Amino acid sequence: MYTNWQEQGLDSFTAIRWYRVGAVVEYLHELRRYIICTPGKLSSTYMPMLQKEYSQVYDGEQDALSEGHAMAQQNNERTQGLPAKESQRFPAHEVYICEAIGDWGLMLDRLALMSSIMVNTNRLERRYPHVDTAGGLEEQGMVMIHKLMRMIVERVDFVNRQQFEARYDLNWQQEQEHEQTSQQRSGITESNKANHVKREETPRRDTTGSGSSTPHYRSMSSDRSEGTVDLTSNQPN
């Protein structure tokens, strides 16, 4: 687990969108193919989407959306939250982009906006800059897809495990090791407390080397023998 996850406040990042780079590439390929190969009016039912909330079904198409199409839309959802938790390490062999790192969020939002206008051409009446027709919008969409592909090839603002943990100064420790460390620290603390109490309660030990914890007292018999005088030597014959 990440031992300092709470200290870094990363739970507040869970709403930020992260995308696997492979999923973004797949989305760009599908969108490009759909724009190029669709002969008629583009439909939100089949429009590839990176984020679920951008693929809402409009009232006029509600009846036409079958259960199979709804399932396809759900499968097209490629967004996810932070790919790590306090007890779950950042994936080792995956590379991600984050909507809040670099220009990825803005670029992907612009492409999503273009896709929405392609489906709802009446929005052209809002007069977006440099776009006057549906065909011009599709051309701008292709340019945006190409820019994003170049950013991916150049690995712009990619985030892997090493970069993620370095960016937020995270320390990972296996759960078993973490438990052992916690137990060791707890044991040391308890031992220190016990030693402190023992020093306060234990009386002064005997320094004679006997090993007895009995306090040292002077021997009364020894005191008498040291002060005794031999009176028999001075008695007359």
From TrEMBL:
Bias-annotated ranges (Polar residues): 185-194, 208-220
InterPro entries given in the database record: TMV-like_coat (IPR001337), TMV-like_coat_sf (IPR036417)
GO molecular function, one term: structural molecule activity
Region (Disordered): 173-237
TM segment ranges: none
Compositional bias per record (Basic and acidic residues), positions renumbered to this chain: 197-207
Source superkingdom: Eukaryota
Name of the protein this chain belongs to: Uncharacterized protein
Protein species of origin: Mucor velutinosus
Organism taxonomic ancestry: Eukaryota, Fungi, Fungi incertae sedis, Mucoromycota, Mucoromycotina
